[in-house]
TrEMBL record:
Protein's name according to its UniProt entry: SCO family protein
Endoplasmic reticulum in keyword set: no
Entry-linked SUPFAM superfamilies: Thioredoxin-like
Originating organism: Flavobacterium yafengii
Residue span, Thioredoxin domain: 53-220
Intrachain S-S bonds: C91-C95
Protein family (similarity comment): Belongs to the SCO1/2 family.
One Pfam family, short name: SCO1-SenC
Superkingdom of origin: Bacteria
Residues that span the membrane, as ranges: 6-23
MF (Gene Ontology): metal ion binding
Amino acid sequence: MFKNKSYIGISFIILIFGIYAVPKIVERIKNDKVVQGDRLDSVNPATAKEGQLIKIGPAPKFELVNQDNKKITNETYKGKVYVLEFFFSTCPTICPKMNESMLVLEKNFFGNPNFGIVSITIDPEHDTPKILKEHANLLGVKSSNWNFLTGDKAYIFNLANKGFNLYAGENKKVAGGFEHSGLFALIDKNGNIRCRNDDFGNPILYYDGLDKKGVRNIQQDINILLEE
């Protein structure tokens, strides 16, 4: 008897809660307040305005050698907007697509002295300056501001994994013997990593070099940075 009354009481409370709370939750979702109020509390509205790009922080410093056996550092790109990637010349998986994406960017900004590209090999033991020169020629690279860089393997892996937080690793079990990210870093004239927000207002950090939308996005954002 008492047990049945308890069930009735609990059911009544749940019913009242549903009548009161559910419409309010639905209303919040319709107005996108759940996302704005709960998920994005940590996002600074001043940096999330349309047309503006987020400043993530200074890009890691680097000093490597290019396909012409010349020393290239982050200072080489001071005053330039540039895109940076990690790759290797014999990569049979994602690199051909990344190359294709970079060639699109080179073509669209060719002749602009304030734009450049940095491609850093994660297989420096194979990718000597001579090999990288051949690789650049094979791709049909025309821009003098596109540098293919090589150097010490441990230094490069540290730069990728701890500096840019872009994964690079050696794995003999995978095709090509190496694994790495397909993301592109966008760096402004002052040496800061920059990016746009996603649809929820969160910084994307890096751009997908394997996706046409990602390439379109970075192309648009390069234009924004060139105007700054």
